[in-house]
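Troubleshooting log. The previous run stalled partway through. Resubmitting the same two chains, unchanged.
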Amino acid sequence: MMINELIGRKVGMTQIYNESGQVVPVTVVEAGPCVVVGKRSLARDGYNAVSLGFGEKKNKRTTKPEKGQYSEDVSPKRIIKEVKTEEVESYNIGQEIKASIFKPGEYVDVIGISKGKGFQGVIRRHNFVGGVETHGSNFHRRPGSIGASADPSRVLPNMKMPGRMGGKRVTVQNLSVVVVDDSKNLLLIRGAVPGARGSLLTIKRRVSNG
Amino acid sequence: MKIKLSIPEIEKGYMKENIPAFRTGDTVRVHTKVKEGNRERIQMFEGIVIHRKNSGLKETFTVRKVSFGIGVERIFPLHSPLVEKIEVIRSGKVKKSRIFYMRDRSGKKSRLKEREDYKNGDKQIASAE
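Second attempt completed without errors. Output:
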């Protein structure tokens, strides 16, 4: 099992044309290069994994305990993430994992932090329908009843109510890779991915077969 | 970390390079690839550009012609591989970037004057090439 995961950054969206001239909406993702920063082995840590680093970090801004994680030939990284793999032995510290681990036509799952929407009502947050706007109605965008009376005399857990929306970890499954640009470390992924431009993403080979 | 890559830069790699300079008001002949079964042929559409929209790879333009008394408009994606070639036939002097008023005009009213700078400049360059 090779590494099936990369850390990346969302660049933005655009469109390209396929061979038959159709427009394909794509998200440009700067995927890697990820550097192998460390290894975890079954004998020592109880599981097999490789820790990948992405993005350069100024030496000056790195604390001494943090620097201790890196071997001498690896510079400090902005983000470190452990990726499970059985073939820990076949990877060396300092090795670069590039966007070319994915091929055009493959399917990937993309994980990111969605854009924060602030405090939102139930219509936007939970797709409630709301009331009618006219005919003397005073019930427009309210949530309505949130429970019964003396029984159960409390609000049940997970009741859908207004509150903070977005800014959460979101996974989008089964997005197809349209173009892999190895020299620029770019992936062009069909469709939208979570998060704002410049936000961090994890790109995985797809989990489901559906 | 700053984003080194920008969308306009990435789009450059997918854009056509040899697009002739044309503006709203110009008369163009657009060669498009049409697939009929297994055969591919070139179809032409000639008319006045009434609008250019968006920028970069997403740019499109609208061409209007009057065919057998009926106005026909087609929107072409500028960088689509199906748009084989764009020929600029005549320039037109207009004051707006969207000349949708052409839809209400017919006959002699729908004539456009030729652009002066085009007459003197571009044409000479074109003939010199």
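Takeaways: Residues 93 and 113 of chain B are 5 Å apart (CA to CA). Helices of chain B lie at 7-12, 116-128.
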